[in-house]
Amino acid sequence: MSMKIYFQRYWAGIVILIILALLPLFSSEYTKIVAMQIFIFGVFAISYDILLGYTGIASFGHAIFFGTGAYVSALMMIKAGYSFWATLPFVIVICALIGLLIGFLTLRFATIYFTIVTLALGQFCYFLLTNALTYQYTGGDDGLHGIPAILQTKTQMYYLALAFLLAMFFIAKKIVSSPPGKTLVAIRENEFRAKMIGYNVLNYRLIALVISGVMAGLAGSMNAAVLKSVFPSFMGAGTTIDVILMTILGGMGSILGPVIGAALVIICQQYLSSYFEWWLMIFGIIFVLVVLFLPQGLIGIFYRLKDKNNTSEQKLKNENYNRFKNHFLGKCFQLFRRQDS
Q1: Which CATH number is 257's domain given?
Q2: Which of 100, 119, 224, 325 has a CA 20 to 30 Å removed from the CA of 58?
Q3: Of 208-212, 266-270, 295-299, which range is least confident?
């Protein structure tokens, strides 16, 4: 592929990368922190999209992995004197084991039971962190503070977080574009047919859960390093709800979409809340409008511009995406209805 064709195809991404590379040179410290949060939660949302958008599994406890990564790194750095980089192998192994354990116990049943169990496990882990018995290790409601800095300046941390996002983005893109990634989509679309042609659905879902959990754990570790603190809310239901909103708003089943959704949610939380007391209502209206008028999420705007000459194919994509999104929202409704009863 020549440079001219490459630039014509990816010019928007190249321009965005140039802007992001130059942003620290003319932005405030607060803006850098917000940008780093977008990068980190972008990775967190990508990890959830692998689970929901590509595999069709709805987890209401995905913050378990995010919080685990944050607390493992924080405890090892504060209590044992490990460097940040030395904690990452432990984060990967522990998050992978948690994913395997949850998967073996729940994935063989219907997906609604997986959703209920992950919700319960998430709440259990949250209360475990805030319990008086674990206070000396977790800091209770106050969390843990005083994590050693891994780099000297905010600008250096900014570029590290940006590199982290780019690395995880391309790794995730490679995974979902591979034959196993295509198999995950086939399982999402028609589990029965995938079984009939010989695919082991349980194994593929288990692999997706482990990969998703490890990526979420690494995002949690990076968040702890950026903030130099960890809090129980990292493992709370609110964090899981945030990542679900990011994934749906940006567009499920697209690696770039969740990053866009993460940017929208973080910007609304950090800036919109400063100017409007009822910012949650405004954000709710934005969410409803996206669900109603953008079938593929915010990334659907780009798809429409790109495929404006292929309306039949785009219509089929919208129909498939709408069917899956309605199925997911229906499962959420069933879950809350069962809890109420």
Answers
A1: 1.10.3470
A2: 224
A3: 295-299
